Amino acid sequence: PLSGNKMTAMTCLSFLRIAAVCAGLDTGDPAPGFLVVDLDGKKHSLNPVSLVPGRALPPQPVFVIDFFATWCKPCQKLIPHLEALQKSYGSGLRILLVDYAEDRETLSKYVRDRSVALAAVHDSGGRLVARRYGLMDDAKTSLPVTVIIDRERNIALFLRGDVKDKPAALDGALRRLLGPPPVSQGQTGAP
C-alpha cells in the first residue's frame, strides 16, 4: 500500500503528464527556446544545449517558468514559494515570472508594489514565450501554468492551474534535478 505522500506524488505526476499533453508538449520533450528581457532590462535566454565532441558542457541552470497574471489569486499565493526556491538554489535555478495577459505597466506596478524578488517578463500577447508553450492555443488556459526545464533543456514538469500540491510537486522535481537546496546561514532548512 502507498503512504499519503507517495499517493499524492503519484497523483501529481499523473496530473502533470495529462496537463503537458493538453498543451501540445509532453514531459521529456525539448523545451522551446526563447530570448526575453525582464522588467529590469536583464536578458534571459533558453537555448538548446549544443554538444561539442571533446568539450565539457558548461553547467546549465534549471529553469522554472511561471506563467501568471497579477489578478490571479493562486498565482499570488505561489510567488513567495518561488522566491524561497530561488533564494535556496541560487544560480543553479533561474525562475521567470511571465505575464502575457496584461500590459507592461500593470505588471511593473505589481512587481514594484509587492517587492517581488524574481525576474518578471512582460510577454505582450504571448508572442515571445507563452505561444511557444501552447498557452495561446488553449482558450481554457488556467493560470498559473508552471514549467520546469532541466539542464538538458527538456521539459521536466508541466503544471497547469491551481494544483493543490503545486509547491510540493515543484520541490520534488527540483530535488530530483538539483539535489537538496544548500542550507544558507540563518536558514534552518529548504522550502
Number of strands: 7
Low-confidence stretches: 1-23, 185-190
Helical residue percent band: 25-40%
> What is the topology, as strand order, of the major beta sheet?
5-4-3-6-7
How many separate helices?
4
- Say what oligomer this is: single chain
Instruction: Name the overall outline.
Output: globular
Structural class: alpha/beta
Mean pLDDT: 81
Radius of gyration: 16 Å
Largest sheet: 5 strands, mixed
| Pattern of helices and strands | HEEEHEHEEEH
**Distance between the ends:** 28 Å
**How much beta, percentage-wise?**
15-25%
Question: Could you explain the architecture of this structure?
Answer:
With 191 residues, this protein is α/β, with parallel strands linked by helices. The chain contains four helices and seven strands; from the N terminus they run αβββαβαβββα. The chain has helices at residues 4-22, 73-89, 104-113, 166-178; strands at 34-37, 43-46, 62-67, 93-99, 119-122, 145-149, 155-160. A five-stranded mixed beta sheet has the order 5-4-3-6-7. Helix 3 links the parallel strand 4 (93-99) and strand 5 (119-122). Residues 1-23 and 185-190 have low confidence and may be disordered.
